[in-house]
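Dig into these lines:

——
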Amino acid sequence: MRDHGGVPAVITPPSGTVAFLFTDIEGSTRLWDEHPDLMSAALERHDELLRTAIVDNGGYVFSTAGDAFSAAFSTPMMAVEAAVQAQRALQAETWPAAASIAVRMGLHLGSAQERDGDYFGPALNRAARVMGLAHGGQVVCSLAVEELVRDGLPAGVGLVDLGEQTLRGLERGERVFQVSIDGLVNEFAPLRTSSASTGNLPTPATSFVGRSEDVKRLSGDVAAGSARLVTLTGVGGVGKTRLALETAWALTDEFPDGAWLVELASVGDPASVVPAVGDVVDARPASGMTIEDAIVDQLRSERSLLVLDNCEHVLDALGGFVSRVVSRCPRVAILATSREPLGVDGEHVRVIRSLDPVLEGVELFCERASAADGDFDLGDDRDHVEELCARLDGIPLAIELAAARVRSMGPRQLTERLEDRFRLLRAGRRGGIERHRTLRATVDWSYRLLEDVERTLFDRLSVFSGGFDLAAVEVVCCDDAVDELDVVDFLGGLVDKSLVTAERTGGEDRYRLLETLRQYGEEQLEESGDLALLLDRRLSYYRKVATTARERFEGTEHQSGRSAFEAEWDNLRAALHWANSNSDGDAASELIAASFSYAEAAQRREHGEWARRTIDYGHADPTVYGALSLWLVYDGAFDDGVHVGQQGLALAPSQNDISALNCWKGIANALHWSGRVDEGFAATAMQASIAARSNAFDEATCEAMQAMAATWGDRSASPEHLRNARRLADPLANASLNCLIDYIDARVAHENGRPAEAAALHLENLTRSEECGNRWIAGTSALALAVSSSASGNEDPELWFDAVTRLHKSRNWMYLWALLETLALKWVTGEPRRRLGAILVGHLEANQNRYPPLADQREIALNELRSDPQGAQWMNQGASAPRDDIVSLVLEELADGDHSAGA
């Protein structure tokens, strides 16, 4: 071994402040899949070169999981020189052309604990994240390393400042430097920061302690494809969710279509489980499809990772769905967390161990205690903390609850109190595995430490689904037992004790109970006999929340209303379930009516399922039927939309009652889009007469829709309706409503022979509709932009591709049919896309999907194709094809840059 400036060769693992070198092979999963024989020999040589460089420079290899090396050095200079030697050796090697190896490397310096040749501590996580920024052949290091090596680097080695970088899964970023090496490639693509990843994984607010090797093993198994369904099991509070999220973060490079967290804890109704998954991955069912069909159909062509969190209470509803995804979606992997296995074929169960109380448990306690009390010092209390963690079986939740109390009592007092509580709480406890009883004892112990009012408040907070705000607490939870004037202090106390989590979203404070704690509180509330009372209060409160949010969404405070719906969607779902379960049809109908405008704009198709289930419960109300009618129309089920709308009308006090507004809206849309234009105008007139007695939003919306309908008939009527719509909308300054009116204004410009002007208006409106969250208008604007651009001579396949993708993603078949017919009639007139155009025409004709403004062109095309034997054959192919397959054909064709969309 070399002597580095007088530093003796390392023959034992270094301790204290340690320099870490982490490496792995870029793209190794693909290489193993494509060339397993070549990779076997290449990996052997790779290992030899890495190990030699590390040992030559005094390093200690402490992990070689898969193709990754983790090494520790006494000084950062040793680590840098090892990395330089390794890269030179690796890049000088002659690798097989099909299995050329490129290794990325990261260096970091930090305090770590060593035991039995392994290391623990946050420094390892940071070293791994720094390495994860790099590309194959690149060496990067943290600021801590740079500061100690910059003045003594060997000849031919330099440092390039790459600036402050975000580290995946870590709250604090890192200033990163590239180690440049003369003679090697030193130009690389931008670093792999988390901003480039897709999905919805949350960034943890605290450090990850004790399970780095678990993450390596799990991520290795999932990335290699040997375990596509992994269920993390264990007692509540053992850290299943956090381990799943850390593993998901480590796998983001392997899943280019996204890593998606589906939080099932707040889904109480089994029927809502699969729709909740669909909402996260944005799957939209077509008419005749279930939401499960839509999810499977979307995921089967993607490489995505699903993290299904807290599955234990919905196993029956989830098992068949997961099994189907695994069997039908070969490139999708699933990480599930549950207190028991899902019980489906192909499942790999991983029982999550508790933390080592002596090492990892103490580390976790000290970190959380320091966060709770900046003056905390372990000092002479290590033995007491070790005993405390051992008594808590190393369960992270229990340790964190204990650490949160250090401001009021020290480790010795905590340990003494815990001893008494365990003895008391184990006595008479019903059966169950020991670890589960231990966790319950831990939560019981923490619960017993609360003041009486705190306990009452904690129990009552369990009725909230997902998050909640202070206003909800004051209304739902406060009475003579919990004073509204003191609830802020009590809630803050529960946050301090880690029984409630505080989150800041969009400048607003919101709160959440960990699911283990929420279930515990719910049990206490049920035992007290107060659960039904609190659920009734919750329903009453969220009826008002939904009504107020609707008024804002449809009025001058549009963004505030939108934010309220987005924040409280889980609670609205739970409130609706309670209303239906307790036969409160009025409340269920009010919730559905109040949330429809937002759900329509955001294209939350789950709302249609809400309406359908409410009708199934026997809670017949015109507003519910009206909502379902409109969702059926969006799905392209025009006849069903008319039928359901008419069912709603039969329940209304009269056909022009305000409750019938959406029934007429659904009927009018269905009639117009199915080609029954004259009947559609009559239904629109009924809708308009009712809207005039509703509110400005409804009236302006109806005037705008009349302007659009007029473009299919008497075009001279459009300007007057648009003027009326703007007159009504201007005082509201409602972004979503203005986007609708601007969209129709641009449509009118196109119909009046000004396509270039219309295209510019649609492009601007597309951006604004995305900003205000109106996905419905964004999709239709994308369609109109493609049409107008094409008519003005700017034929851009990307515009058509974007429009098809948006509308198909939201399952807005009402407009998607119009888009497909527009393309079909363009393509059927000539080569090279005549065949595909004929297939589209045949499909549309067989399914009776006709866009009225194109009726004359369609008849010409049909007559031409029917007289052509080959055309008839192509049409027959389209007639029998599923509509999602038709969309796939169109997207494939539009993605081909050899032809223009209008060829």
